[in-house]
Amino acid sequence: MDRLGIIVVSICVLLMGVWLYEEQQYAKKALLYQAQHPVPAVPVAGATPAAAPVPLATPVAVAPFNTNLPERTLVLTNATARYTFTTRGGGLKTVELLDFPQTISRRWKKTQDSDALATLNTHSLVPVLGILGEPNLVGDGNFALTRTATGGVQAEKSLAGGLRIIKTFQLSSNYLVNATVRLENRTERPLSLPAQEWVVGTATPMDVDDNGMVEGAMWYDGSGIQECAPTWFAGSGFGCMRGSPRSEYLVGSNNVYWAAIHNQFFTIIAMPPTNLPAQQIVARPIALPWLATDPGAAVPQGVQTALVYPGQSIAANSGVERSLVIYAGPKEYRGLARMGEDFANHADLVMNFGTGFAGFFGIGSFFAKALLLGMNWIHDVTTLGYGWTIVMITILLRAMFWPLTAASTRSMKRMQALAPKLKALQEKYKDDVQKLTAKQWELYKENKVSPLSGCLPMLVQMPVFIGFFTMIRSAIELRGAHFLWVTDLSKPDTLFIIPSLGIPFNLLPLLMVGAMIWQAHLQPPSPGMDPGQQKMMRYMPLMLLLFLYNYSSGMALYMTVSTLAGVLQNKLTHIPPTAAVAVVDTRLTPSGKKQK
What we know:
The protein has 14 helices and 22 strands. With 596 residues, it is α+β, with helices and mostly antiparallel strands. It folds into 2 domains: 15-41 and 72-102 and 115-352, Beta-galactosidase, Chain A, domain 5 (Distorted Sandwich), CATH 2.70.98.90; 385-581, no CATH class. It starts with a helix and ends in a 12-residue tail after the last helix.
C-alpha cells in the first residue's frame, strides 16, 4: 500500500469513529427533544384518532391510568426473582433479580444504592402486560389484585360496555412467568373488541455505565430477528442530511412469534406458546432525564415495546383468551438456548451476536456462540476466574492458528531476505512497470514466497475477532468478573479520572496498543516499502484506541494476550538455514541473470 493509500485508510478509520460517536450523541439529543416536544403517538390499527393512547414518548410522570386512585401492589418471590404486581395497569410492575446487583462498584467511583438488585422494567410508565388502546378498553386503568389458590396473582377489571378483563400470573422456574389474559363479554349482545397493545416492557439502562448501543426492542418473525435500537428513532441519514426524529416503530404482519426488550445484559421476552403469533410489534422511545447524573451528562434513554392484536367481535356471554410465557432475566446463552428448544422459538437469538455485515454474514455469530460456550466450559472445568479463562482460550486459539502463522512468518522472513534483489530489480526496470512486476513475481515463485502471505492469517482470524467482539459485548458471565486490577471485565478498566481533563485512565487498552507496536517493530518489513510508510504501518495500532479504549476490558485483555503470544511465535519461528542462505546468496549480474 502506498503512502496515499495509508493516509486514506487512516482518515476513513478516523471518520468511522467520529460517525459512531455522532450517531450515539444525535440519538440522545433526539430523545431529549422528544421529551421537550412530545409527538402524539399514532393510534394502533383499528383505533380512532380521538381515542389514541397517551403518547408514551413523554418522559414525565404521565401514564394512561388514573393516578389519583391509590396504587396497591402484590409481591411474589421465588428462588431467582422478586415480582411486584401493580393495580395500575394490572400487570407486572418490576422484576428484581436476586442473583444480580444493579451496579458493579468501582474503586474510582462511588455509587448510590450499591446493594440494589438488578431490576427490569424500572422507571416504566406501564407494567408488563398492561393493555393499551381505546378508552373503552383502558378506562381508568386500575385493576383489582388478588392472590390465587395456586400462589399466583389475578388482576380483574370491569369496563363500561360489558367488557371484563381477567389476567392471571403464575410464577415458574428459570425466570419464567406463565400469564393468561381473558377478555369476556358479559352482555347479551355481540361486543366489538378494539385493537390492543399488550405491553412487553420498557428497555432502560441498568445503570449510567450501561452500553446504550445494545439496548432496544427485538422480535422474531419465524426466520430471523428484527431489531429497533434507540438510534432508529433519531431519523435516517447522517449529520445535517438526517431526517426528522421518529416517534413510533410499527411493523409485522401476523408473524410476531415473540417480542423482547433488552439492555446490555438483561431482557424481558413475551412469547405466545400456543396461540397464533401477534399481528404486529410497536415500539416508542422514552427519554429518562431524571436518571442523568448531572446537567451535562448524557440523557439515558429507553424503548417501550408492545405486541399488537387486532380488533375482533366477541359473541354474547363469551370470551377470548390468549396465553403468554414471560421470561424476565439475564441474557445467559445456555439458559436461553434451552428455553428456545423447549418452546421451539429460537429465544436465544435475543443475544444478538450480529447479523449481516455486523455479524460477518453469520460467520461472526457462529464464532461468538462457539467462543462463549468454550469460555464457559473452560471456566467450569478449571474453576478459574473469567479473566484467566480469557487468557487460556486466547492461547488455545493462538495454538490452533500456529501452523498458519508460522508459515506466514517464515514467508515474510524470506521476503525480507529478498529485499536486496527486489531493490536491484526496481533499479533495473524502473522505466518498465509491467516488466518489473513480471520479474518480481518470477522471483517470488522461484523462492516459494508470496507477498500476500502476511494477509492470510489476518483474514482467517478476522471472523474469530468479530466473534470475540460480539460475544464479549453481551456475555453476562463477564459482568462483575474480576481480573488483577480489573473490577468488571464487561466494562473499561478505569483506574481513575484524569484531573482537569475528565478523561478516564484505562490501562489495558494502553498495554494492548503498546504490545501491538512492539509486535509491529519485530515484524519483517515488506521489501520495497518506503521507510515512511513502514513507520506509519507500525503505528497503525494506535487507531484501535479509537474503538477499544472505552470498550469491554475483556476485549482488551484478549487482544493483549493474543499480541504477546504473536510476539512469542515470531521469536520461535525460524526459517531453515539452507533456505536462508539460498535466498541471501542469490545475486544479479549486470545482464539481470543469476550469478553462479
